[in-house]
Write a structure and sequence with these properties.
Keywords: Hydrolase, Protease, Serine protease, Signal. The chain contains nine helices and 16 strands. It is an alpha/beta fold. It has one domain: Rossmann fold, CATH 3.40.50.880. The radius of gyration is 19 Å and the shape is globular.
Length: 323
């Protein structure tokens, strides 16, 4: 028999508004069935660990999973002499994914890619997403994902709407590196032209919109300017208001940062760290001028909570299993 000892450490953080729906804390898609919430997996880049790979397949339904893999951040059809040469290249690069269906580990698997932004509103192109239980985005350049799949804000494409429905019906959407960056509504980009010893400049565009109240940093490290530029953007509430088009949304924004070889599994307001490295959560003060930084170790889980008429609470769960 397995017993679970649960220690809850409640960290109270000042906030100046109450959100009735817990899902609104991260802007997570509201599930069609509350008993079957979907999931979002944010991988920080670098090697995708076996734990992350297997958890994604599990969340998608295991042997009944229908997986769609989008390699467009890293591979362009225009760079190959034909579709078959393109498929040969992505099959070689992502062999562990491509063989899932052949080995009976999932019900179906397919790559979905385009260079043409018009395809994002094509019923034929997005058809595989309508029955998908899991969608994964590779690394590469997040600007390629923005260009191909994201509508002129605040309009969304059929591709974006179909992604949202995957999560709403209980499926999982995930990605690594650029794929992670593109999942929220605000997609972070960074200028690499500054002096490498000074903080770099945060640049932002629009992503898929699956997390409306969070900004995400991948390849996170507390040196080389990445911490400074991320925190600067998170503190800039007026700029975040402008990017979202929702006055007041900036002061509610949560920062999620993931190191390489780590992943953050999000189910509504429950967050779990898997992989071999850490994830970090940044919560804003009441006046949005300061941030509280929470470092999460592998296998650590937390919940974000909003209490009526009281500060926001982050519940840190330290779970010990006794066999």
């Amino acid at each position: 028999m397995r017993f679970r000892a649960l220690i809850l450490t409640i960290l109270l953080l000042l906030s100046d508004s109450w959100l009735a729906a817990d899902d609104a804390l991260l802007g997570f898609p509201k599930p069609n069935d509350d008993a079957k919430p979907g999931a979002i997996v944010l991988h920080g880049g670098g090697r995708v660990t076996d734990e992350t790979f297997e958890r994604f397949i599990e969340l998608a339904g295991g042997q009944e999973a229908r997986i769609v893999f989008v390699p467009s951040a890293g591979f362009r059809l225009a760079d190959y002499r034909g579709k078959q040469e393109f498929l040969n290249a992505v099959n070689l690069r992502y062999g562990s994914w491509a063989k899932l269906a052949r080995e009976g580990k999932v019900a179906s698997f397919q790559f979905l890619a385009t260079d043409n932004p018009a395809d994002a509103d094509s019923d034929l192109f997005i058809k595989p997403l309508l029955n998908a239980t899991g969608v994964w985005f590779s690394g590469g350049s997040q600007l390629r994902l923005n260009y191909r799949f994201v509508g002129e804000f605040p309009q969304t494409t059929k591709f974006q709407d179909a992604l949202m429905e995957v999560v709403k019906r209980g499926g999982v959407v995930g990605g690594t590196s650029a794929g992670t960056a593109a999942i929220p509504e605000i997609m972070t980009l960074w200028s690499e032209r500054e002096n490498p010893d000074s903080p770099e400049t945060a640049v932002a565009a629009h992503g898929f919109g699956l997390l409306r109240n969070a900004i995400v940093e991948q390849h996170f490290q507390a040196r080389g300017g990445r911490l400074e530029r991320f925190c600067k953007l998170l503190r800039d509430s007026p700029r975040l208001d402008e990017l979202t088009g929702r006055p007041g949304s900036g002061r509610l924004m949560v920062g999620l940062a993931i190191e390489e070889s780590a992943a953050l599994v999000i189910r509504r307001n429950h967050l779990e760290v898997i992989g071999d490295a850490r994830a970090h959560i940044f919560l804003k003060s009441s006046g949005s001028k300061s941030l509280t930084w929470h470092e999460l170790d592998p296998r650590e889980t937390v919940q974000l909570r909003k209490l009526p008429g009281a500060p926001t609470a982050l519940l840190r769960e330290e779970t010990a299993l006794v066999r």
